[in-house]
Design a protein that fits this description.
The protein is 37% helix and 21% strand. By secondary structure, it is of the alpha/beta class. It has 2 domains: 84 residues, no CATH class; 131 residues, Rossmann fold (3-Layer(aba) Sandwich), CATH 3.40.50. The longest helix has 26 residues. The relative contact order is 0.12.
Length: 241
């Protein structure tokens, strides 16, 4: 069994990372040649049944989709800037727990969609609510009430500009909130710095913060929270049998 799969001289795929880290290796396409991305996706999919690449530009998507692979199919998530290779008949391992996902503005949807697709592909059910920032705070309460009724294990909140929405959400819920600052905005701090600093200075305990535009990182944290809760539930069921 090859734990590390060397691909020519360009990469060493960590094929079994999920076994010890809880999250499989996912390919960052940004800065990589489209031929490299294709090779990495195909090799990972052959071994694991599914492979994911994030931050894929439109030119690379065109090149990658020209590659026809027997018994595999390509899935392109345009808004998430992701492409996935899936072996036919491959089934995602469901965690059977729900997470919430909120975006403050429509501009933040690209980062939110990256988080959403990662969480779904790694087994979570995602309840979304987009464009409910604090400029119209009344829009927040009905979606948030639904998420709590559905017993989400955590909520990912994506926000740019002043980045205040995650603090507000955490003040209203008893589950972990993961804040994702985005680079939307203008003027001083308009590349996400203001949103990041606001989230880091939050007075609502239980708010966790990832880096600017890091929907992927927030999704992985949410998935790991869900997996740990699932383990505890399964352990409790076994001990009661």
């Amino acid at each position: 069994m090859d734990i590390i799969k060397k691909i020519e001289d360009i990469a060493r795929l960590d094929v079994y990372r999920e076994a010890w880290a809880g999250i499989p290796e996912i390919i960052l396409a940004e800065g990589k040649d489209s031929q490299w991305i294709t090779k990495l996706l195909v090799e990972m999919a052959k071994r694991k049944g599914m492979a994911i690449a994030t931050r894929v530009n439109k030119e690379s998507v065109k090149e990658i989709k020209r590659k026809k692979i027997k018994n595999f199919r390509w899935i392109h998530y345009d808004k998430a800037r992701m492409i996935v290779v899936v072996k036919k008949n491959y089934k995602i391992k469901k965690i059977n727990l729900k997470v919430g996902l909120i975006s403050a503005g429509t501009t933040d949807i690209y980062v939110a969609e990256e988080a959403r697709r990662i969480m779904e592909l790694l087994g979570c059910q995602v309840i979304t609510a987009y464009d409910i920032g604090i400029a119209g705070v009344h829009r927040l309460f009905i979606p948030l009430k639904k998420m709590l009724k559905e017993k989400v294990v955590c909520i990912v909140v994506v926000a740019g500009m002043d980045g205040a929405l995650p603090t507000l959400v955490k003040s209203l819920v008893d589950v972990p909130v993961i804040g994702v600052p985005t680079s939307s905005g203008y003027g001083y701090g308009g590349q996400g710095e203001s949103a990041l600093m606001t989230m880091l200075q939050s007075c609502s305990p239980g708010l966790l913060v990832v880096n600017i535009d890091n929907g992927f990182g927030a999704a992985c944290a949410a998935v790991l929270i869900a997996k740990q809760i699932k383990k505890m539930i399964d352990s409790s069921v076994r001990s009661n049998d």
